[in-house]
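re: ur question from earlier - yeah i can do the single chain one, its not a big deal. heres the input i used so u can compare w yours
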Amino acid sequence: MRLVLLGAPGSGKGTQAARLKEHLQVPHISTGDLLRAEVAAGSKLGLEAKEIMASGNLVSDEILLGMLEDRFSRDDTKGGFILDGYPRNLAQAAALDRLLQRIGQPMDYAVQLEVPTEMLVERIAGRAKAEGRADDSPESVRTRLKVYNDQTAPVVDFYRQHGQLTVVDGVGSLDEVFTRIVEALQPAKEVG
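and the output i got, formated as tokens:
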């Protein structure tokens, strides 16, 4: 099964991806982790990315797609994967779709974890306090969430138009949310 996890910061994507990885027996691919690994390995794309990041710029979609294509070519992705942190905008969603079609591994599902904004602010503020981070004030979190929503709304629509979107309530215990995701991914599930 190939799926993309979508959700605002604090929605629980990383936590649920780790659980889904075990349940589905497919790798969890985080573009942030992938980028750090490529830089650490000193690969051609990693060196390009390192130079770009050192100058304070964002790594291009072209470099990220190259890293993803390389990652998708490894044996452990033959049975599928969970993609987390990408795509973040409509151009990335379209480019990812073209890449996956080209390599014969089309996306099965996009799962959007839906959590109310005020709960996200509370979760992130709590996490920031626990980790001793001062940069996650409620105001900065709300700004980040607005940017996320503005950029990601078209991605959600992209997957909805392709008939691949599944929206899951991200409020509740870790087990409750995990069960909702697993149930939503059942292919024989009747849509009412």
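Confidence is low (pLDDT under 50) at residues 188-192. not sure if urs matches, ping me
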